[in-house]
Amino acid sequence: MRNTILILILGFGLLSFNKIKDSNEKLTEAELKFVKENYNWNSESLLIVNFRQPVTSCHYDNYTNLKKTSESIAKFYSKMELGNVRNIFVYSDGEKAKKIIDSKNHYNDIKSMFLNEFFSKDKTCYGILVFNRNGDFQKKAGEYTPEIIEELIDNLK
């Protein structure tokens, strides 16, 4: 009985820990212009940035097998209905990712903007940002699931 209660408490704690909170965070006009110009964000209503932290922030080399990882993530997203969304991948270590960076869907973190502005304090391997056209955004540092992405998107509606 005692173990069951402990498991329930732990389970609820983990579920609430992963919950994304509404935020009123917003890019400045200059930051919004920078993102639109440098990451080819044109008419889409939302921009999803899948961010890969530097190896020094991760407990393993998160730049190993980037092509294979990219294909797996593409399958991950193919199961979601995103609609009018631009979905890109940004790498904080452009040198390690140079084989995959195409400046179409895969980008270097230009001027280290995403690392410095959003993920510098996070010691994780990955992160995700979702922006709307007004510059409002939602962020999740660490691993994420389709449900988390949907929640981030819903919070911006």
Report on this structure.
This protein has a five-stranded mixed beta sheet, with helices on both faces. It has 157 residues and is α/β, with parallel strands linked by helices. Helix content is 36%, strand content 18%. The protein contains five helices and five strands; from the N terminus they run ααβαββαββα.
Task: List the main descriptive attributes of the protein structure presented here.
157 residues; alpha/beta; Glutaredoxin; five-stranded mixed beta sheet; 5 helices; 5 strands; globular; disordered N terminus
Q: Topology, pairings included?
A:
Blueprint lengths: L1 H16 L11 H10 L7 E7 L13 H13 L6 E7 L14 E3 L4 H7 L6 E7 L4 E5 L4 H10 L2
Parallel strand pairs: 1-2, 2-3
Antiparallel strand pairs: 1-4, 4-5
Give a brief outline of the structure.
The protein is built from five helices and five strands.
